[in-house]
Amino acid sequence: MADQTIVEALLLGALEGLTEFLPVSSTGHLLLAGHFLGFQSTGKAFEVLIQVGAILAILTVYFGRLWDLFVHLPRSRAAQRFVLGVLVAFLPAAVIGVFAHGFIKAVLFESPMTICIALILGGIVLLWVDRRAEQPIYNDLIDYPLSLCLKIGFFQCLAMIPGTSRSGSTIVGALLMGASKRSAAEFSFFLAMPTMAGAFTFDLIKNWDVLTAADLPIIGAGFIMAFIVGVLVVRSLLDFVSKRGYSMFGWWRIVVGTVGLIALLTVG
C-alpha cells in the first residue's frame, strides 16, 4: 500500500470527522477532495464506510445519555416517544435509500459539478433560515412530536444528493418547523446513528464482493481519523450554534462550492 494513499485516507478521514456533524455536507467535501486528489476508492465504499468512525464518536460523547435512555425506556413514556421519534425520522431515508442506492452511487457520486451547486444553494438556504427571528416552539428534543420527527425525516432525504448535507437538511427542516438551534443540532446527532449505521451496513453488503484486503488499511486509517476529529466536533458544536447560529456554515458552503466550481471549470 502506497504511503501517499494512506496519507490521503488520513486527510479524508479527518475531513469526514470535521464535516459529518456540521451542516456543510461531509460526503460532498469527501467526493470533491477525492476528485482533486485523484483518490479512488473501491465502489466509492470508503466515503460511506468511514462514517462508522463518526457513529462511534457520537456513541462515545453521548454514552451517558444513551445509557440513561436505555435504562428508563421500559417505564418512561418520554423516552419511548423519543426513541420512536428517531426511528420514525429514519424511516423515509431508509426506504428511499434502498431503492435509489444504485442511482446515487453511480450517478450523483460521480458529479462534482452537482456537488458544488448543491453546496452553494444549501449555503444560501442555511443563511436565510438562520436569520429568521421567530421564537422557537420546541427547545428540548425530547418534546418533539412524532409528526415533527417524520417531517424532519423527509427533509433528511434531500441529503441523498451529495453536497446537500444530512445534518444540514435535518437542521433546516427542524428550524423551519419551530425547533431551537441547539435542539435541531442535537436531534441531528441522534438521527445520525441509525441513518449512518444503516448506510454503512447496506453499502458494506453491496460492496463485500469487490472489497479486498488491500482496501482495509485505507478504510481503517480513515475510520480512526473520522472518530478522533468527530469526537472533538460533537463536544463543541452545540455550544457554538447556541451562541452563534449557523451563518458561518452557510458562508463556508458557498465559499467551498464556488472554489470547487472555479477549479472544475479551469483545471477540470
TrEMBL record:
It is an enzyme of class 3 (hydrolase). Its EC number is 3.6.1.27. Keywords: Antibiotic resistance, Cell membrane, Cell shape, Cell wall biogenesis/degradation, Hydrolase, Membrane, Peptidoglycan synthesis, Transmembrane, Transmembrane helix. The chain crosses the membrane at residues 48-70, 82-104, 110-129, 187-205, 217-238, 250-267. The keyword Hydrolase applies. InterPro entries: UppP. The keyword Hydrolase applies. Catalyzes the dephosphorylation of undecaprenyl diphosphate (UPP). Confers resistance to bacitracin. One of its GO terms (molecular function) is undecaprenyl-diphosphatase activity. Pfam families: BacA. Its main location: membrane. It is found in: Cell membrane. Bacitracin is thought to be involved in the inhibition of peptidoglycan synthesis by sequestering undecaprenyl diphosphate, thereby reducing the pool of lipid carrier available. It is a multi-pass membrane protein. Belongs to the UppP family. Signal peptide: none annotated. This is Undecaprenyl-diphosphatase. It catalyses: di-trans,octa-cis-undecaprenyl diphosphate + H2O = di-trans,octa-cis-undecaprenyl phosphate + phosphate + H(+).
